[in-house]
Structures are given as C-alpha cells and as structure tokens.
Amino acid sequence: MKKLASIIFAFLLIISCSEDNDDTVTQVNTTFNFTHKWDGTSVSNTNFNTIQYTNENGEQLSITKLRYLISKITFQKSNGEKIILDGYNLVDVTNDSNLSFTPTSPIPSGNYSHVYFTFGFDNDDNYNNNYQDLNSTSWSVPAMLGGGYHFMQLEGKFIDNTATETGYAYHAIRAVDISKTPKEFQDTFFEVDLGAASIEKDTTFNIEMNIAEWFKNPNTWNLNALNNALMPNFNAQVMMFENGQHVFSLKSVTP
C-alpha cells in the first residue's frame, strides 16, 4: 500500500512540475518606436519647410514630407526558427502619426538571436495593390512602373547651382527599367537587423532613422542631377537601396 501511494505521489509531482514549466512560457507584446535625426539633430514635422540641412554634397535643403513603410517584423531564435508577425506600418512624420507601432500578435518570451523588420514590402506583399488603407493615402505605384507600393516618400526643397529654391522628390520603390521589354526589375526592399534581444516582458524597441544617410553613404547624392522623376530611374533606385543600408539604428530596448 505504501509503495502504491509513493507511485501515485511521484506521478502527481511530475504532472505538477510539467504544468509549472508550461506556466513559465508567457506571451509578450512588442512595440517599435521610430525617431528621426539629421546627423545628430532631432527632426520632427515642426522642423519641416525650412531650409536648414546640408547634405554630403554641400547642398542646403529642407524637408516638407517624410513617410515610409515597414513590414514583416521577425524574431529569429538561435536554432533558425522565425516568428514573422503580420501587419505593416506607414510611418508618417509629416502628420506626426504612426511613429509607434505595436503588432497585434504577441510573441513567446525568451532569447532571440536576431530581430528584423523589412523596409518597404517584399515581393509577396508588394502585389496587386490590395491594401485599401495604403491606396487611400496616395501610396500606390503606377502600373507602368510595375504597380505595388512606395517604400518611402521624402520631399523638400534645395538651393540648386543657380541659387534657386528647387523642389526634390526622393521616392523609393522597387527598381524598374522601363526601357527594356519585358520590363526589368530589381528588388530594393531590405531587412534591417536590430541584433539580439532577450525579451521577458512587454518590450519597446527604439529605432532611429538618420535622414542624412539617404544622401551620403556609399553614394554621395547630387540633388542638382537627381531631384525629380526618380521613380522610373533604375540606377537611382539602386543607389537609394544602397544608401538605405546605413539609415536605421537601434538606440535602446526598454521593458
């Protein structure tokens, strides 16, 4: 009888321990905050419409519009397993909206070897203009350029080489060469790797965009030569993609 009681006690103890271990796996929410600077100087829409910045090429310029798309926030474990969250966010600095994004899906707490997000849409998402909220904000790309969506709209004015205030429209899309039949495309979305993170509770990632980097690394941008009609300019789009690799940085992770 004592032996039977010991077996039952041990069985109940195993079940109890198993339930306790399950309880330690918690679901947490993540938030991504986006701030903006020009080589160390904070930028918000209150700084727009005034020529006050100087790019790497020595041109003085203003910002009148800045908005960009992020998508496919991904958490990767050390074994390679990935958790890819649905949803996207149109960061709109112009209207001071969507500067903070909390995906609707939580993730399991734990250690992650990489946290990523995609700048723009990858080809699976950038298809058929199916997102009505983006369609209503003039975010679509014309069909003659392949359709889909913008990745970024950065606009303003600069002092050109005739000392005239001239507008620029630095719009990033999927690169397309419309001079070829059929059209030639090159992917220009890119992943931003925020590095490793240990997440035990609701966590915020504070991310900074250095706007000046769009104009300087590795391609020094000459606004006198490249200021408008950049969407159908295949080479310009590739240059934007290259410069974008250095634009975002993770400033802090806070619980």
UniProtKB/TrEMBL annotation:
<keyword id="KW-0732">Signal</keyword>
<dbReference type="Pfam" id="PF20243">
    <property type="entry name" value="MbnP"/>
</dbReference>
<dbReference type="InterPro" id="IPR046863">
    <property type="entry name" value="MbnP-like_dom"/>
</dbReference>
<protein>
    <submittedName>
        <fullName>MbnP family protein</fullName>
    </submittedName>
</protein>
<feature type="signal peptide">
    <location>
        <begin position="1"/>
        <end position="21"/>
    </location>
</feature>
<feature type="domain" description="Copper-binding protein MbnP-like">
    <location>
        <begin position="30"/>
        <end position="225"/>
    </location>
</feature>
